[in-house]
Amino acid sequence: MAVFTAVGLGELTQWIKQFPLGNALALRGIASGIENSNFFLTTERGEYVLTIFENLGFDQLPFYLNLMNHLALRGIPVPAPVANDRGELVVPLQGKPAAIVSKLDGSSQMDPQPAHCAAVGAMLAKMHVAGSDFPMQQSNLRGLDWWNETTPAVLPYLDDADAHLLRAEMHFQQAFHGCAHYAALPRGPIHADLFRNNVMFVGEQLTGFFDFYFAGCDTWLFDVAVTVNDWCIDPDSGVIDRARARAMLDAYHAERPFTHDEQASWQPMLRAAALRFWLSRLYDFHLPREAEMLTPHDPTHFERILRERLATPAPELFHE
Ligand SMILES: Nc1ncnc2c1ncn2[C@@H]1O[C@H](COP(=O)(O)OP(=O)(O)O)[C@@H](O)[C@H]1O
Ligand SMILES: N[C@@H](CCOP(=O)(O)O)C(=O)O
């Protein structure tokens, strides 16, 4: 159950008055999710999602909420934050930061077909383009610096083979992040966690991207690699499903053509995206936060994906 902070409808009676939403009529805790306390909130104006942020602070949140606002204003289907009467998107509730955003229709597609992957690829490209004039800067907080900090913390828990893999991949990624192709990659705000559980569909119609709380400024190609590594694989082996990957990459390329530097960086970036989630899952598994309530995700899934990306050439990003 991902409601870490209990809130009752009665407590919202006064608090909700600062928003242009009328009275709060119903509040229902949302069971899924691992980071925050989420509630479906019915008001006189409609259906919303209330989030109480358990780990993110008032300093980081304006980036995420303003990015969602920027994208929503440009027609990207993301939850639109609701500002209070002082124009604030992040407001304290029970001493923690909280926000109200619009509720998306649909549900997650956990067994995606090429048509779903094409819809995600096209919307991801549109999102990158729409975000390119977003004025705020916040780096990807789960980028190379974080990998450098986290590697020594998890190494003592690994057997020799896994420790060797992690050290070798970190060396490779440090070199890749310093190379000329990498420096030339187009970049801007990225979602950075666009897994199947963070996208809504109604049938084959994509109705929204959400959960922007790992977003940051980084290469667009990293976002594509994270997305392919979750949407376009055989879940047991981590092997890329060529039909789904082709559908996603071609749809992306049609909206925002990939560059030659991106083509040259594709395989290393798929490895980087696997490494990022192997590391975070290792960290959550071996060093769980105090009061962690949910079973951590399985790190071996991304270790398998990383080994597979090392062993097998990925489909081309685009046909030259
Ligand atoms: N804007 C939204 N519209 C509709 N459902 C939402 C929205 N935001 C969150 N949800 C629902 O809440 C669940 C948990 O949200 P999520 O952002 O993944 O939580 P966490 O950040 O804690 O992992 C999602 O799986 C989804 O069902
Ligand atoms: N997608 C990450 C974990 C982040 O969880 P989310 O529910 O906030 O998307 C993973 O699978 O390791």
From TrEMBL:
Taxonomy, superkingdom: Bacteria
GO molecular function, one term: homoserine kinase activity
EC number(s) given by UniProt: 2.7.1.39
Keywords: Amino-acid biosynthesis, ATP-binding, Kinase, Nucleotide-binding, Threonine biosynthesis, Transferase
Entries under InterPro entries matching the protein: Aminoglycoside_PTrfase (IPR002575), Homoserine_kinase_II (IPR005280), Kinase-like_dom_sf (IPR011009), Pseudomonas-type_ThrB (IPR050249)
Domain Aminoglycoside phosphotransferase span(s) in chain numbering: 27-257
Catalyzed reactions: L-homoserine + ATP = O-phospho-L-homoserine + ADP + H(+)
Annotated pathway: Amino-acid biosynthesis; L-threonine biosynthesis; L-threonine from L-aspartate: step 4/5
SUPFAM superfamilies: Protein kinase-like (PK-like)
Record bears the keyword Phosphoprotein: no
Alphabetical list of CDD domains matching this protein: HomoserineK_II
Family, similarity comment: Belongs to the pseudomonas-type ThrB family.
Name listed for the protein in its UniProt record: Homoserine kinase
